[in-house]
Specification:
Layout lengths: L2 E4 L5 E6 L5 E2 L5 E7 L4 E6 L4 E6 L11 E5 L6 E3 L9 E5 L3 E6 L5 E6 L13 E8 L5 E7 L9 E7 L4 E9 L2 E6 L8 E7 L4 E7 L6 E9 L5 E7 L5 E6 L3 E5 L5 E6 L5 E7 L2 E6 L9 H6 L2 E6 L15
Parallel strand pairs: 2-23
Antiparallel strand pairs: 1-2, 3-26, 4-5, 5-6, 6-7, 8-9, 9-10, 10-11, 12-13, 13-14, 14-15, 16-17, 17-18, 18-19, 20-21, 21-22, 22-23, 24-25, 25-26
Length: 326
C-alpha cells in the first residue's frame, strides 16, 4: 500500500516503503529481472558472479527448497530474453561478454548468435568491454549496450547496438557511451507513434527518441528525464499507463516517472544499490547489488544483492520475444 507525501517542489508524491527482501542470495551485482510467463517464474542475473537465477513464483519462498535454480557460466551474463518458438525451459537468449548468445539451461552451454565485434561490417572482439542492459523490441530485435568490463577503468568506450537475429545483422546506434542501461518503449509500441527510452547512467539522463518500428531507426533525441540526485539511474520497466519505474543506484529507491517526464512516485528500499525492476502482474520485483562493510549501515550491507517485491497497483508491459533466423 502506498502513501502520499509532498516533494521538494510542493507536488504530490506517491510512496511505497519496502522493509524486507523477498529473497536474499547476496548477489554481487543483481540485474536484469525478467518475467518468464510460461513457467510463472522470475529470472535475474548476477553479473559479477556470472550466474542466471530462476525463482519459482508458485513456490512458498519461506519454506521451499526448490525455489531457486542457478546456472553458473564462465562469462559475464547481463540480461536475458525469451526466444520466439522456443520453450524457455530449454533455451533462452542472454547478453554475454561478446554479444548475444543462446543458453541451454539444462547443460549450461551457450553459443553466440551475434557478436558486437561484427557490427557495421567490422570483425574482432573488444576484450575491454562486455554487454550490459538491453531489451527486445516489437519486431524481435535485441537492443543491447556495452561498457567497460568489471575490473577495468571505466571509460566512455561503450555502444548501444541493435541486433537483428533473424537477418543476422548488428549495427551501432549510439557511440560512445559509458554506462548504457535499460531500453524500453511507450505503451503504443505496436503502432507507428512509438517512443523509445534509453537510460545513460553516467549522464544521469533518460533519453527519448522517435522510433520507427519497421526499420528500427531512431531520431529526435531529447532528454526525457534528468536526475539531480547523488545516485545514477540504472534499469527501468514501463507500465501499461506509460510510467517508467526507474531504479536509482546509490539512493535506495525506484522512481515512478510519468509519461510527461515528471517524478510522481517512489519506492523506498532498505539497501542502497538498487539496480533494476520487473513487473509480475501488479507486483514490482527489484534487484540490487552487494555492498562492502563500511559502505552503508549494517542493514544496507546485509540486504545488498537481495531481491525485493512490492505491489504498486498497475501492470507492466509484456516483453517481446527475440527472433532468430531459420
Amino acid at each position: 500500500m502506498s502513501t502520499t507525501t509532498t516533494d521538494a517542489k510542493g507536488g504530490e508524491l506517491q510512496v511505497w516503503n519496502v522493509t524486507e527482501p523477498y529473497l536474499n542470495l547476496h548477489c554481487g551485482l543483481g540485474e536484469g529481472p525478467y518475467y518468464e510467463a510460461a513457467t510463472h517464474s522470475l529470472r535475474f542475473v548476477d553479473i559479477k558472479k556470472r550466474r542466471v537465477h530462476t525463482v519459482d513464483l508458485t513456490a512458498d519462498h519461506n519454506t521451499s527448497s526448490t525455489l531457486v535454480t542457478t546456472v553458473q557460466l564462465d562469462t559475464p551474463v547481463t540480461v536475458t530474453a525469451d526466444i520466439e518458438g522456443v520453450d524457455p525451459r530449454d533455451r533462452i537468449a542472454i547478453g554475454a561478454k561478446y554479444g548475444v548468445a543462446v543458453l541451454d539451461r539444462r547443460s549450461g552451454a551457450y553459443e553466440y548468435v551475434a557478436r558486437f565485434g561484427d557490427a557495421d561490417g567490422k570483425s574482432g572482439d573488444n576484450e575491454r568491454t562486455r554487454s550490459n542492459d538491453g531489451a527486445v523490441d516489437v519486431n524481435g530485435r535485441f537492443w543491447l549496450g556495452t561498457m567497460s568490463d568489471i575490473g577495468l577503468d571505466l571509460q566512455p568506450e561503450g555502444s548501444l547496438f541493435l541486433i537483428d537475429g533473424a537477418a543476422g545483422t548488428t549495427r551501432t546506434i549510439r557511440h560512445p557511451v559509458t554506462i548504457p542501461n535499460s531500453v524500453g518503449w511507450s505503451p503504443d509500441g505496436r503502432t507507428v507513434s512509438i517512443l523509445l527510452y534509453f537510460t545513460h547512467s553516467t549522464a544521469r539522463t533518460i533519453h527519448a527518441y522517435d522510433y520507427d518500428a519497421g526499420s528500427g531507426d531512431v531520431s529526435g533525441e531529447r532528454a526525457f528525464y534528468v536526475h539531480d540526485g547523488p545516485g545514477e539511474p540504472d534499469g527501468f520497466r514501463v507500465d501499461v499507463e506509460g510510467n517508467l519505474w526507474q531504479a536509482v543506484y546509490g539512493e535506495s529507491r525506484v522512481l515512478k516517472i510519468s509519461p510527461a517526464g515528471e517524478l510522481v512516485g517512489e519506492v523506498r528500499l532498505p539497501t542502497r544499490c538498487v539496480t533494476c525492476t520487473q513487473f509480475v502482474g501488479t507486483e514490482l520485483f527489484i534487484t540490487s547489488a552487494g555492498m562492502e562493510v563500511g559502505e552503508g549501515t549494517d542493514e544496507e550491507v546485509e540486504l545488498g544483492g537481495a531481491l525485493f517485491r512490492v505491489d504498486v497497483g498497475v501492470k507492466g508491459l509484456d516483453p517481446f520475444l527475440f527472433k532468430l533466423g531459420s
